[in-house]
Design goal:
This protein is an alpha/beta fold. Helices cover 35% and strands 22% of the residues. It has two domains: 205 residues, Vaccinia Virus protein VP39 (Rossmann fold, 3-Layer(aba) Sandwich), CATH 3.40.50.150; 125 residues, NAD(P)-binding Rossmann-like Domain (Rossmann fold), CATH 3.40.50.720. The chain is globular, with a radius of gyration of 21 Å.
Length: 413
Amino acid sequence: MSRTTTVPPCRICGGGLQEFFDFGKQPMANAYRTPGEPGEAFTFRLAGGICDRCTTVQLLEEAPHDRMFHGGYPYRSSGSSVMRSHFEQLADTFLATELDRPDPFIVELGSNDGIMLRKIAAAGVRHLGVEPCDDLAETGRRNGIRVCNEFFDEELGKRIREEDGPADVVFAANTFSHISFLDSVLRGIDALLAPHGVFVFEDPYFGDIVRKTSFDQIYDEHIFFFTVRSVKYMAAAHGFELVDAERLPVHGGEIRYTLARPGTRAVQPSVRTLLAEEEKAGLADPATLRRFSDDVRRVCTDLVSLLRALREDGRTVVGYGATAKSATLLNLCGIGPELLSYVCDTTPAKQGRLTPGTGIPIRSPRAFTEEFPDYALLLAWNHAEEIKSKESAFVASGGRWIEYVPDVRISAT
């Protein structure tokens, strides 16, 4: 999955990038087209490397931001009960800690539909969501939050500071890793943040991606794949200090990083602990990265072999969850309608459309429950517990789940 090619310098420090995976030409992960519509005109090479200086893992080629984050962007944070609870609990934590002082102010980058800031707003705390997607920004406003419909950068950070004063908290969830121009973003955060304020962000953890072989976490939106080591380097390079790193179970494994100005906060023991774990796991070692690439090949081979055997045996097989990450899996493995009859998904905007690149019909969950298939490939595996609880009748009817993280297997529970 890797080949010798010209690679750009590291976006964080300018160091050399060593390519270690190449998933070939891929469509945009959220390019859901209607039947009869021409195939996706835009594809890009989904390949990545690791910096030999700061160890940041990143895509070698990036898709244009306006193709990824636009008016029809389909993901809604509040669509999952797990994520609703996750962000509501975080809002409570902020209210009890960083926002418990007189006239506090919080800014969220990539506020999505406002699920976290809605609780902040209800508490009467000054806030601002920065959301570049038009539909999401409008949804956030309808949910009662104040929204700026722009991309965040240095200029916007300075403008917000001038209009609203310094922020006690700048927060980003599953957003920071999506932005290629992090130097400008970090300068904007530096301009906006109060002297004792914190920048908190949570994103998929590269350590979990390697450990679980969850390679479908790699798609167009995820430009960076952070580790504690790489974030510590990035923070120091931009005048911040990494003071906390908390493991999170959501989205298949994330870390919540807390950055502050040097010397203003005590560095928590979790930072040292996770740095030691990363060193022991060899996350920056070429041998570890080669094993990851080999594991990806193994999972793809095993999954396609299983699906072909089931279809040849006359079994009905569908997909569950037309997720952005499933685009990587389906296109890399070459899984189309001949192996999956359809993919069911709860998002109305995706229903009636086709999966990016592979052209599998997307249907509502009603199609799944009206006539249960024999097998369902769990594409939304990071919501497995929630989905399996909701679809218990599927297993009761004799249906079986196919899972592929970390290995391909069939399960009845």
